[in-house]
């Protein structure tokens, strides 16, 4: 895992978090063979010694019987001590592996709290890792992305982010921007040093290069949404063409009611399926047709809305009937036409119309459909399943847009010949927005760059 060599800006630091010792059950609720309880903070080792009478050595698993106040054994566990800063949080940490029952884990945690620890707040271990410089903010967010990943590609993107893929790209552009800012501010603050500024064109070009690189990263926002939320896939068509049957076929089990009676599906049904490393949120919808039934009309309205909001629309038609136009929703990004019931034959009027032959009854065409759906999103335009798969989230996107806006203002200021002080304000703003993504930009970085680059004061 990539780590940083210095803690974040001092404004992030909460002194209380550096003096208290916290504890929590680190494994999911439920009954299992084993469970893990984590203690982190300056009193981690003394607390373990008080409740188990054991002296632990760093990174050595040790058998430890946890005892209650009366000396009765609660459970025989394996305890491992991680000495600061070589731990996830960067603090002294003890991890206790015990039997995974509700009662035993609760009693051990209660005993730890009784011995001096405080209950950990949600996310507090990862927060401490950030505060202690073990993770930047993008890596901290990746921890939750890994836990909630619903597909292979989502997991790969989260792992890349945890390894620092996004943070490193941001830091590279921040370093370039710091260099430009430092040069400009040195010229403003130390004119007696006779430091020649870059030409206006060179400064503007440098800012433009940074902006281009950030734009490339911004383009992964949609990729991030698709990976984190899944691909919204609406199944639409006329009544009785096999929409619910297609949902069941792709899921591999009967989720939706299938009937020859028109209007059986009156509301949307949503389920998730994993295909080719992607997560698809399949939405079965009401059949599109003219009806006077107000409930069916409401269902059709939801169908059109689901189609308009979808990333992928699977339009399904009856292969035995001639093509009929139905009122489709606004054109989605990707649209696939599926001819169902091909096991019963195909009407000649379908000849020359691009569609995927399918049979929900026999499963014929399922592999082809799945391949078409996956390839539509792995074409290199929507998702890029390479080694450096990047997927920024909504917070990153917002901060990057603000950064780009400030960079554009700075570039315009330079080209307009404004006073360097105005340009410097825009550059500082851009650095603040960029630093919000990782939590790592500090005024001290600019000062260091000024003095290291220009050897001022000599």
Unreliable sequence segments: 1-17, 261-266, 453-458
- The helix/strand order is HEEHEEEHEHHHHHHEHEEHEEEHHHH
How many β-strand stretches? 12
* Strand percent estimate: 15-25%
Helix percentage: 40-55%
Report on the biggest sheet. 6 strands, mixed
Strand order of the largest sheet: 3-4-5-2-1-6
Question: Number of DSSP helices?
Answer: 15
Structural class: alpha/beta
Global outline: flat
The first-to-last residue Cα distance is 40 Å
Model description:
Strand 1 (22-25) and strand 2 (32-40) form a beta hairpin. It is built from 15 helices and 12 strands. By secondary structure, the chain is of the alpha/beta class. The strands form 2 sheets. A 6-stranded mixed beta sheet has the order 3-4-5-2-1-6, with helices on one face. Helices cover 44% and strands 16% of the residues. The model is unreliable at 1-17, 261-266 and 453-458 (pLDDT under 50).
């Amino acid at each position: 895992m990539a780590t940083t060599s210095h803690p974040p800006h001092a404004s992030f630091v909460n002194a209380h978090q550096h003096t208290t010792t916290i504890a929590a059950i680190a494994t999911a609720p439920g009954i299992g063979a084993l469970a893990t309880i984590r203690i982190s903070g300056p009193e981690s080792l003394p607390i373990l010694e008080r409740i188990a009478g054991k002296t632990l050595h760093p990174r050595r698993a040790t058998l430890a019987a946890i005892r209650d106040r009366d000396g009765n054994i609660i459970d025989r566990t394996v305890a491992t001590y991680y000495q600061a800063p070589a731990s996830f949080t960067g603090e002294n940490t003890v991890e206790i592996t015990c039997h995974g029952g509700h009662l035993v884990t609760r009693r051990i945690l209660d005993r730890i709290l009784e011995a001096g620890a405080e209950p950990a707040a949600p996310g507090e271990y990862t927060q401490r890792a950030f505060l202690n410089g073990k993770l930047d903010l993008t890596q901290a967010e990746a921890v939750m992305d890994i836990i909630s990943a619903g597909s292979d590609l989502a997991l790969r993107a989260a792992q890349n982010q945890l390894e620092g893929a996004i943070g490193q790209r941001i830091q590279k552009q921040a370093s370039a921007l710091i260099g430009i800012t430092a040069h400009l501010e040195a010229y403003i603050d130390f004119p007696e040093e006779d430091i020649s500024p870059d030409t206006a064109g060179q400064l503007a070009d440098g800012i433009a290069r940074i902006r281009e690189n950030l734009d490339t990263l911004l383009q992964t926002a949609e990729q991030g949404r698709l990976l984190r939320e899944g691909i919204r896939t609406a199944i639409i068509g006329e009544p009785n063409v096999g929409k619910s049957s297609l949902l069941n076929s792709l899921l591999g089990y009967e989720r939706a009611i299938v009937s020859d009676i028109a209007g059986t599906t009156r509301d949307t049904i949503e389920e998730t399926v994993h295909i080719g490393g992607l997560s698809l949120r399949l939405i079965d919808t009401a059949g599109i047709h003219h009806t006077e039934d107000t409930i069916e009309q409401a269902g059709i309205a939801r169908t059109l809305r689901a189609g308009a909001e979808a990333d992928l629309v699977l339009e399904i038609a009856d292969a035995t009937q001639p093509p009929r136009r139905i009122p489709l929703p606004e054109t989605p990004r990707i649209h696939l036409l599926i001819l169902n019931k091909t096991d019963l034959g195909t009407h000649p009027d379908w000849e020359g119309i691009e569609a995927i032959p399918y049979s929900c009854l026999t499963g014929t065409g399922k592999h082809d459909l799945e391949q078409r759906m996956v390839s539509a999103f792995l074409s290199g335009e929507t998702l890029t399943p390479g080694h450096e798969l990047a997927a920024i989230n909504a917070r990153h996107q917002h901060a990057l847009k603000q950064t780009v806006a400030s960079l554009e203002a700075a570039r315009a200021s330079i080209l307009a010949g404004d006073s360097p002080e105005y340009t410097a304000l825009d550059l500082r703003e851009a650095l603040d927005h960029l630093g919000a993504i990782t939590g790592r930009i500090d005024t001290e970085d600019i000062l260091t760059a000024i003095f290291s680059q220009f050897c001022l004061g000599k």
